[in-house]
Amino acid sequence: MVRNLKKLIEQVAKDKNLPEWLVEKALKNSIVLAIKKDRKIKNNLEVELTEDGIKVYQVRKGEKFPLDIVPEELDRIAAYAAKEEFLRELERADEERRYLEFIELEGEIVIGIVRRVLENGDLVVDLGKVMAILPKREQIPKESYKPGDRIKALLLKVIRKRGTYEIILSRTHPNFLRKLLEAEIPEIKEGEVEVLNIAREPGERAKVLVKAKDPRIDPVGLVVGLRGSKIAPVTQELSGERIDIIKYTDNIEELVKKSLAPAPVVDIRIDPNQKRVEVAVPKEKLSSAIGKRGVNVKLANRITGWYIDVMSEEDFKKLSQLS
């Protein structure tokens, strides 16, 4: 019987272009289901295909106990399972294989077609072999989609959920911007320029901290390109998200100034113990430094890793006099 099952596994694996281990798993699952149905067993079962025959165990609290079942009855149930339950389990195995292929693409950009827009705003995206979900929270706020739209996104993760798999996509994750930069800018992909950190307010603004492998090279110019030619396609893909490219320096004063650009910093006070920086800008440039809804200074905080308190020159001087 086992020899016949082994041959069945080999043949099905060949016909369906599936790995043998996945076919064997499907067959074992079908035998388990058939035994549970026949014996009305609720406990977990485990099946082994050995040279000596089919072995079945009940599993309780991590321990395995042989199931009392005669070989003839087991062969009958296994033969039934191979015919009746196996096809359904094989369909599940084929689905599992398709999703397992996408696990290798976690963290990479994928392209698909929007098939449905759910009531909660989530998108069902056809990736060719499988469907994926682009949750509302992972969409750029100003964007909207309809069935048939082509969409590019980061494959965030593949998760197992209630016995099946679910692929989650994202267009808001910092790594989506990182991968777009790698795709558009050869110097980043080839390692000449390293992306050290990314902070995003999706659809509005992003700050990208970069460092050149060769200190004599200007990484900002390489990334932005002549008149913004290299960064323009990335901005376009992100629905106009403004991208500030910042050259890394270990001088925190210079780094903070660059992170708040284009607002000019006229004075600065650094507290290394608190990782806090107080910054003075001209009064008429205060709103520019802080940004709409505080976005600019919030991103500067995240890209530098320091808390930046932006104030007018007048308030800066008053605080200086008090301290």
UniProtKB/TrEMBL annotation:
Coiled coil: none annotated. Keywords: Cytoplasm, Elongation factor, Protein biosynthesis, RNA-binding, Transcription, Transcription antitermination, Transcription regulation, Transcription termination. GO terms for cellular component: cytosol. It holds the Pfam family KH_NusA_2nd. Residues 107-172 form the S1 motif domain. InterPro entries: KH_dom-like_a/b, KH_NusA_2nd, KH_sf_prok-type, NA-bd_OB-fold, NusA_N_sf, S1_domain, TF_NusA, TF_NusA_bacterial. One of its GO terms (biological process) is transcription antitermination. Its main location: cytoplasm. GO terms for molecular function: DNA-binding transcription factor activity; RNA binding; translation elongation factor activity. The keyword RNA-binding applies. It is found in: Cytoplasm. The keyword Cytoplasm applies. Belongs to the NusA family. Participates in both transcription termination and antitermination. Monomer. Binds directly to the core enzyme of the DNA-dependent RNA polymerase and to nascent RNA. This is Transcription termination/antitermination protein NusA. It comes from Thermocrinis ruber. The lineage of its organism: Bacteria, Pseudomonadati, Aquificota, Aquificia, Aquificales.
